[in-house]
Amino acid sequence: xxxxxxxxxxxxxxxxxxxxxxxxxxxxxxxxxxxxxxxxxxxxxxxxxxxxxxxxxxxxxxxxxxxxxxxxxxxxxxxxxxxxxxxxxxxxxxxxxxxxxxxxxxxxxxxxxxxxxxxxxxxxxxxxxxxxxxxxxxxxxxxx
Length: 144
Fold this sequence. Notes:
By secondary structure, the protein is α+β, with helices and mostly antiparallel strands. 40% of the residues lie in helices and 29% in strands. Strands 1-7-8-4-3-5 form a 6-stranded antiparallel beta sheet. The chain has a two-stranded antiparallel sheet with strand order 2-6.
């Protein structure tokens, strides 16, 4: 399980250091793709295989599912860490997530997300105002 929030800076070549606490779970090779929110979703290979399986087993007769598959699969790229623990975020994924320089790297359970720092702060502010209502509606606070 991936947890935590880490602030980092993209280097001039579009690379970011993956925090050491997250590297072990991701492994040496992992998949980057477009997040559903404006972020880069990062999946360990085994979790990507499960996600892939779910996506391809949906009926292709549904327009929304075809669109989701196109976005997720066309945006996916298998990457690896260099010796300094960095990985390159391709330009098209940086554009999708509005990433320029400062990023937040988040552990979100089954995956990691990379956000533009300002976008994350705005998202967090908007969501945190309604967090108690979300928890009440979902009833996750009590494990139900």
